[in-house]
Amino acid sequence: MRPGRRLVLSLLAMAALPHGLQPAAAGERDDWQHYGGGPGGAHYSSLANINRDNVAALELAWNYRTGDTERYPEHRSFAALNVTPILLPAAAGQSLVLCSAMNRVIALDPATGAERWTYDPQILVGPVGNKFLCRGVAYSETPATAADAACRHRVYTGTKDLRLIALDALTGKPCADFGADGVVDVRPDIYDDTPDLKEGDVQFSAPPLVIADLVVIGFADNTKFWRADSPHGEVRAYDARTGALRWAFDPIPRRAEDPTALGWTREALAQTGGANVWTMMSADPERGLLFLPTATAAPNNFGGHRPGDNRYANSVVALNAADGSVAWHFQIVHHDVWDLDLPAQPILVDLRRDGRRVPVVIQLTKPGLIFVLHRETGEPVFPVEERPVPTDGVPGEVLAPTQPFPTRPAPLGTTKYTAEDAWGFTSFDRAACRRKLASFGRTGLYEPPSFEGTLQVASANNWGGAAFDPQRSLLVLPVSQAPIYTRLKRTADVTPEELNQPRMGPIGPPTPMAGTPYSFQFGPVLSPLFAPCTAPPWGELVAIDLSGDTQTQWRFTLGTLAKLMPVPLPLPLGTPLAGGPTTTAGGLVFIGASADEKFRAFDIDTGEKLWEVTTPASAMATPMTYQVDGRQFVVVAAGGHIVAGFRNVSDYLVAYALPE
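User: That's the sequence. What structure does it adopt?
Assistant: Structure tokens below.
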């Protein structure tokens, strides 16, 4: 492999890519029955048997392999084991339940890792689409049934081929009263809206979410790069017992007379797709609210056919779970043409301000802006300003004149690169990067895509999200930064030779955006030695104090280049990150996420690294923790991914504990 090639692949995948806050009551738990720990996604555990005084003694307790790399060797490079398991309660068998990249559902003994049952939905493998993945499952109990009845306790999973499945939590067998023998096929609903879809164009990419007697699911739309008439981005809620559709919410209303169509033109309502929810949702069961982080309306990078702010796209939308009606919404990006989907699960916590507790939702964004909103009204808790932004886009574009900027917390990284930011391993590298950075006609957050090329910052935050420590009011999250460019071209000017060049998903030669006059191109800005053209660190772990005057508490460069270079030099420059952190009452932060095949623990007060272990592959998932028979375990999926440069992709789940 050419020098630095692995680093190139990493960056390509990433580009495609007591005072203060307290967790919501439903989120502060130590049993980890939800993807994010609790339904509010705080990634926090009240367990403290493992703490900063003894974490250095952690050792491997057990490991388990899903078997996907052996069953599907031809797809291993695109199989992403990003899963976070959940722990079922004792009444449901107290199994540790996860799903594999190829959608097998697996129940393990949480103390030993021994397999208890498996369920294989035998997915229609088909084209890769985005990738093969399953990030988690959901659990619910149906109290109306007898205590010993089959499927009183249920596990729900969504498959790549768009099936929602309910399984008996004790046996892994499908629940016969749910849908058709345990399966609700969602594919017809999605494909009827857009009949010319191909396999792999649409898939489930986030766990279902259970609230009250409903199981709710959104989907990933892989077509938004190249078509304006993508599928309707509906979020659907099904009866958790029967599988009957209870309601569906389309972020883009379809009737001009609908009150929610404010700001949309009749033509745009008829032809615009997207605004789907591909990442994790959150729930506030006490208030009966469901929180959706919505994506960009289609296509991602030209909005001339969808003028206006595109209400409900790129928004936090709070729905009344009972009927799917909108309680409130707050738009993070107006009229998005930068692919700034809301990437991470909304975090539900309580903020103590002026002597009272205020329920809030914290929303992370790709550019590294953090919004803190009142959970009941959507009003900003920390001030948000509408600031003027450039509006001189390509012909036919109609950009928003302002964008919302939170006044605090401060952005997590830079929002603009210039030629003065050029960096390289050598003076030759640096000079080449300076020329490249200077060649782009535009640079900075909310600079419109252009014919001459626009220089932007790669995703600062993504689906891994953040963890929150309630005792210290600290928000802890991974941050990746590197320069990318975007460029539009008139499709009529794209040559056949350009179209036939190899591509990696949307990265490569210009990609026509069907329904528009333009094609879109983007990619990383790299030196001749295939390093980012701006200075490291390229990956960090950051802690932000939200107790009052929001400020950065500490930063730690996360990841070395040992696995990304042809010579394994452990340069501590940070790597692209995939996955999130978990915090515990033991004063610890656990995180994998980096491409160097390490799993680490940090002191949450200081950011000091207290423990590090080599994993079988990069642990690009969010860890979880639980306690069984008085022994605390920390578990993370270590499957690697294409961001590790195809070098080591595997299918391990690893568990660590203190010596017995």
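The helical segments are 5-15, 68-71, 187-193, 266-271, 427-438, 496-499.
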